[in-house]
What does this fold into?
Amino acid sequence: MFGLGTTNSLTMDKPHPDSLLDTGVQGVIGKPLDRIDGPLKVTGTATYAAEYQFANMAYGVLVGTKISAGKVVSIDVDAVKSIPGVIDVVTDFDQFIRVSAQGGATDAPTQGVKDIAFFGQIVAIVLAESFEVARDAAARLPIEYDEAEGQYDFAAHRDETRTPPDDATPAHFKQGDVDKAMAEAAVTIDSTYVTPSQNSAAMEPHASTAVWEEDGSLSLYGAYQMPTSDAQQLAKSLGLSEKKVRIIARYIGGGFGSKLGIAPESVAAAIAAKQLGRPVKAVMSRPQVFEATVRRSNTEQHVRLAADADGKLLAIGHETLTSNQPTEDYFEPAGIGTHLLYGGENRLITHEVVDVNFVLSGSMRAPGEAVGMLALEGAMDELAEKLEMDPIELRKRNDPKIDPEKDVPYSSRNLTRALDEGAKKFGWDKRQKAGTRREGEWLIGMGVASAVRGNMMMESSAKVEIHPDGSATVSSAMTDIGTGSYTILAQIASEILGIPVENITMSLGDTNDPPAAGSGGSWGAASSGTAVYLACEMLRGKLAKAAGVDEDGLTLKDGNAIGDNRSTPIGELVGKGFEATGHIKPGKQEKETSQAGFGAHFAEVAVNVITGETRVRRMLGSFAAGRVLNAKTARSQCLGGMTFGIGAALTEDLIHDTRTGKLVNHDLAEYHVPANADIPQMDVHFVDERDIHANPIHAKGIGELGISGAGAAVANAVYNATGIRVREFPITLDKLLDQLPAV
Amino acid sequence: MKTFTYEKPATPEAAVKDIDTSGAKFIAGGTNLLDLMKLQVETPDKLVDISRLDLAKIEEREDGGLTIGALVPNSDLAADRRVVAKYEVLSRALLAGASGQLRNKASTGGNLLQRTRCYYFYDTAAACNKREPGSGCSAIGGFNRILAVLGTSEHCIATHPSDMAVAMRALDATIVTLKADGDRRRISIHDFYRLPGDTPQIENALEAGELITHIELPAPVKGKQEYRKVRDRASYAFALVSVAAIVDVQDGVIASASLAFGGLGPMPWRNPAVEAALVGKAPSDAVFEAAATALLADAKGYGSNDFKIPLARRTLIATLRNVTGA
It folds into this structure.
C-alpha cells in the first residue's frame, strides 16, 4: 500500500473484520458530540445557497405554467420588461429542464419546456435588480397556452398501467405461486392500502446562485445533496464538459431526497447568468418547491399474506401501483422492503405505473420502504389479529435466517433483538386487546411495526491532510444535509489519527474536492466514512514510517504518535505535510450478503372518541444499524425519521385537484407536516451491532431506517385503540368518524 | 408583490384620511395581508401602517365590560388576567389559533378581518368569486375539505378562519370604528359579517376606509365557558369545527346559553335556534341532540367536507356535556 502514490483504494469484496475504529484510542467514536456546524447554523453564519452575494448579481424569479397539459404558445416578455427594475425575461424552450434529475443520474433530466407535462412547470425566469420586482413581474408575465387534456385522476386511470423498466428494485419479481398458497393456507389476509403523494418539505427551498467564471466555467452555489453527480447533470443539461461545472453546497437545509438531482432553478439560473453576463440567484418559492421539484408518488398496494395456523408465512404478495409522468422511468419501489423482511416460500412483488400529469415522482426519504411498509406492516398486524397472536411473536416467527429470495446470508440482522429489546423498554406487555382501553374521551392503543431499510454503499473518495502544526483537514464533495456528516467524518479521522476533533477542519460540499456520492439513500456515513477511514489508514502508515515504529506498535492519541517508548507530536513527523486520499467502491460483499438495517417501532396513540382526532402519546424506535458513529446525531436521524412516520400516518397528504391536476395544498399551511405539538416524548434505542460485510467502519445506513415502519406502528396503534383499520393514509379524523361509537 | 406606497400616520384620524384611494389598505400585524400580497391575491397600491397607533390598551369600563384596542396583539389579549378570569372562552380561542410567533404579531382588529384560507382563493390561477367577482367558484366541485357547510351560496363556500372571532361572537362583542369622515360607529358582531350570497367579495359591514379602533366586550355573563377546536394536527391548523360555548345551569335547568361555531360557515356562526333548543331545558343528550339538529338543519356538504356535519354534531354534544356537567 505504501509508496504506491497517495490513494488508498478498497473494493468491498471481502469482509473487513478488523477496524481501526476498534483499535483507535482517541475515544471519540460513538460519542454524542455536538454537531461541529451547529454554532454556525444557530448564529446564522453557515452560508446556504441563497445567501451568497456577488457584485452585480441579478435576482431571478421562476415562472411556472398555469396549466397542467398542452403547449406554451408564447411568452409576452415585453409586457413586463417595462416594469422599473426588470432586466430581462429569459427562457430556453429546448434547454430548460422540464423535471428534476433523479438521484445519481449522470445524464441531463428531460429537457424542453414548450410541452407542458404538469402544472407549475418552470418555463421562464424573470431577472430584476431586486427580488421583489422580479417576483411582481413573474406574477404578471403573460403566457399564452394551447391547452390539452391531461390525466389528473389516479383512481380513474388505475387500470391503465405500464410496467416500468427495472431499477435497483426489479419492477416484477415472482417466486413460487402466491395464488395457490393463498387458496390452501389456514389463514390469509388480502388487503389494499392507499398512500397519498407527499412532499419532502425541507426547510430550505431549492436555490441556485450561478456565476460564470472568466475561463468559461460555471460555479453554481446550490442546495444539492449529491454535488458530484449533480455537476454531471448540470454539465449535460448545459452542453458543457463536466470539468467546466463546479457545484458548491456547503450547507443544505434538509433534502430528504428532494435535492438528490438538480432541479429546474439551477439550469434556469445558469442560462440566465450567461445571457445577462451577471451572477444570477434563483430561489424557489414554497409553492414552486411543491409544484415543480419532486414528489413521493401516491401508491395503491395490494398485499396478500398466507400463513399456517402457527403464523408461519407461506406466501407474500405485494402488488403496487404508483404514478409518474409518461416520459419518466422512475417508480416508487414500494415493494422494496418486502423482498427481504420476512420469510415465506411463495412471493410476488410487482410495481406498475399509472401515467399522470403531476410533478415528477422521485425519491423522498426511504423511497419504497417508507410507504411500502405502511401496507406490509399493516397487513402483518391484520394477520396477527386474525391469528390472535401477539404481533411481535408473529414477526419473530417469520424472521428468516437467510435472505428468502437471494439465498445468501444477511450481513447482519437483528430484527428479533430489536423487537425484544424495544418491547421491554416500551412496556409492550401493557398492551391490551383492541378497542378496550379508554381514558376519558380518549381511546388508547399501542402498535408495533418492524423497520427495514436496505443498506447501500456508493463509490466515494475523500482527502485527508495532516499539517505541520498537527492539525488535519478532511475534504470531499460529500455533503452534510443536516444529518451530521461534518461531525462523524471528523470523528472517524480523529479516532484513527489521534488528532482531537477540534483540530480537524472539514471541507465538504465542493466538487473541486475529491468526488463522493454525497448524501442519499442513507449511504453517506458508510461511503464517505469509509473513504475518510482509508485515507487515515494510509496516513497512519506514513506516520509509523516517519516515527520509525512498527504500525502495529503505533498509538496515535491527543496529537501525539506514541511507540517504542517515545511520544512525538504528530505535526513534527509530517515535514511540510502528509496527505492521502481514500477511495471506496462497493464489491462482491454486496452480492454475497443481503445488507439492510433492521429495527422496530413502537407507538402509543390516543384517539378522541368524539372527534376521531389521533394524537401520538409516545414512541420508541429500536434499531440495529451497525456501529453508531455519534450517539447524538444518530439518535437525531432516527427521531427525524420517526417524525416523518407520524406525518405519513396521520397528516401528510399532497392533494391534486382531479379536474385540473393542480396541487390544492402547495404550502406549509395546508400540507400538514407534524408541528411540535404533534410530536410526543420519543425515545431511540440502538441494538449493539457491527457489520463487517458492509464496510471497514462496520456501520449501516440510519437516516431512513427511522422512517421505515414508523407510520405503520402509529396506524397499528390506532387500530389497537379503536378496533378500526384505516387502509387509506393519512388517518385523518374523517376516516374514523363514522365507525366510532355514537355520541 | 406589487410595488406600493407607504404611509405611517400618527393618529387614527390621520389614518382614515390617508385611505384615499380604493387601492389603499390598512396594515397592522400583516400576518395575513403580507402573505396575500406576496401571492398577488391582494395588490394594494398603498399601505397605511396603523401598527404604532395608540390603540393597544385593554381597559375596563364602568359597566363591567372590557374595551380592547384594535392593535392589542393576540398573545397579549390571550394572557390578559381579566380576559383569562372572565372571558376564558376568548383566551382559549386565541391560544388555539396560529402559532406563538403569529399571535405576537397579529392584532385584534386584524384577526376579525382575516381572509378565508380557501385553497382556491389563494391560487391566482383558479376561479374565485371572492378574489375576482364573477370568475366562478373552483371550490364547488373541487377539493373542499376545510370549507363551509353552513351559509354557503352557489358563488362561494369559503370559511372564515378565525378562532378569536368565534369566541367574540359568543361573547356578543361590539366593533367600534372610525370612518373617513370622522364619524364613529358601533357595530354588533352579529351585524358585522356578511353571508356570501352573490357578492362573496364583501365580507363585512365596514365601509371603504373605515378603521376598527376598538372591540368592546359586554360585562361578563354567568356560565361555564369552553372553546373546543377540532383540527387535523395538534397545533397550527385551522379549525375543521370549533365551538365556543358559554352555558349557565341553574337548579338543573339551562338558564342561558351562548354558542358560536368556527369552521362551518363564511362567518363565525351563531344561530339563535341552537340556544332556544337549550334554554329552559334540563341538560340531557336528547336536548343536546335537538340543539345539534337546530344547528345543522340547513347544513350542506360539498363532498370532501361532508364529514363536518357529523363532526359538528358530535363536537357540539360533547361540548354541551362538558359545560353542563351532564
